[in-house]
Amino acid sequence: MPSTQRGEVRKRPSGRWSARYYDESDVRRERGGFASRSDALAWLNVKVEEVAALRRGDPASVRPTLTVSDLARRYLDQHDVDPVTIDRLRSQLRQAELVFGDRLITSLQPDELATWRKGLSPGARHNVFRALKQVLEQAARWRWIDENPARHVKNPKPKAPEIQPFESWEEIEAITAELDPRFAAIPIFAVGTGLRPEEWIALERRDLDRAAGVVTVERVYTQGRLKPCAKTSRQRRRVPLRQRVLDALDALPPRLDTPLLFPGARGGYLELNKWRYREWTPALRAAGLPHRRIYDLRHSYATWSLAAGVSLFTLSRRMGTSLAMIDATYGHLAPDAEEQERALLDAYDASAASMPGTGSVENPI
Fold it and tell me: Which comes out higher in pLDDT, residue 326 or 118?
């Protein structure tokens, strides 16, 4: 046969398409299962180039002929992150595989990716598309494709939901009165420390230092897995325990069957989704309060701390996030901040003026 080949594609009785070619040993091969003629041709063109490179004795220049599903699997197999992140990425990529799984990565076009992204649910759109974009970007780095077709598709973050902090401790106490005594301390603890749900769920009693009045965050429980916080992560931190929180913890029924601070009914880790509809939502309703997310307990800690005069820098350390994020998310929710700042500065000036030797000094020059 000639040293070069073009191969052929044909439609099968099933309605799918197949591609036929000769491999580097002149053995006739066929690959089926393509949804369209263009998909089969795209795969065949890459395969023919691969065979030609092998015949030249240049296998290093060969690109693997991968489908989107192949790429997702190979990416996840080598991605060196924690299992929780792998599970999240696999779930997000599954939505892309449902539509493009059998497609060759070399056949993807930016416009069709943009159309697919637009059809995703608004709540998941940004993260699902970002996962596919991340995988395709790695394929471009590995030179399996010339360019990431998703690179120039805009993928703006969704608008953050409106923050609805609680108004007062009286509202929090009204919720705790409606909760099972085993869980009554949770709202007080969450508002009093600002910990994320995945952080206070993972707490053990040994994480409390009552003598020092602090709690240490060292691990999180998310998506059914326990994950240690990295030593360099902002999430690993110490948070002061105000007296109201200590009193609520002292009122918890003792548990000898588990080391967890806020265990589930059987002593294991609390399942947040179930706790939300079994305990949290009914307690809000019984207390006569409008619906709030569990995460709004953390928001309440932030807004109340700002109103109390806690600095943004200190708050960012206590909440385990960046200063920029604290300012962007919560800064506008402290209407008294300017007044409080002015009062603090005036108090400092008055104190300095009353101290001997702090008055103005005549310039000797």
Answer: 118
